[in-house]
Amino acid sequence: MDAGSYTTLTRQIGLMREMDIVANNIANAATTGFRQQGLVFSEYVQRVKDGESLSMATASIAMSSMVQGSLTETGGSFDFAIEGDGFFLVETEQGPRLTRAGNFSPNSNGDLVTPQGHRVLDVGEAPIFIPPDAHNLMVSEDGSISSNGRLIGQLGVFLPNDPTRLNRAEGVLMDAPDGYEASLVGKIKQGFVEGSNVDAIDQITRMIEVQRSYEMGQSFLDSENERQRTALQSLLR
């Protein structure tokens, strides 16, 4: 296989991965707190003999968009959205995870949890307990939770130390390998949830572009394969 074929093949692999990411974005266009992902392509150039160079394309960095999603009013006492930067912190079996999805509810033990059962953590990274006699629950913009004027906890808002290194852990959960810290930069709105920040029309357009690019690359590989086969058959005659 010559250099041109190698270059096209690496590009095809990157396009296949981008197609998977775009398809996942579209599938989660209505998922609460979902963050759209994009792929970053890079090029590796190596000088070879006679002063020529060989170029290889890679697509190995998936970036998550931090654009604010639209806020939808639900009126639910345990529905929360963050206006601005920041994430909620939840406890999972794999460790603490960040999320923008604030559709919570108390479980049978009174702990505030996600729909998947992960416990929501406060500013001190402890589980938030909702007493069974808690009524008229109110949550202020700084996350302070009160019931009939009595403070019962504070919902935490956290910022990753390096937002560019956030990894998609599971669904709407994000892993911050460089750590995180509590912050008051974002305002909490009770009775709202943040929708997905996926631009569905843009993603569908991108899917069409990726598909066409892949088909062009495949056409080149097929033509190159046929050329080499024809040349080999001519030499064997």
What would you note in describing this structure?
The chain has 237 residues and is an alpha+beta fold. It has two domains: 102 residues, no CATH class; 124 residues, no CATH class. The strands form seven sheets. Strands 9-5-6-15-14 form a five-stranded antiparallel sheet, with no helix packed on it. The protein has a three-stranded antiparallel sheet with strand order 10-11-12, with no helix packed on it. Strand 5 and strand 6 form a beta hairpin. Helix 1 packs antiparallel against helix 2. The two termini are 22 Å apart.
How far apart lie the N and C ends?
22 Å
Number of strands: 18
Structural class: alpha+beta
Oligomeric state of the chains present here: single chain
Please work out how many helical segments DSSP would assign.
2
How would you characterize the largest beta sheet? 5 strands, antiparallel
How many domains, in number, for the residues? 2
Let me know the average pLDDT: 87
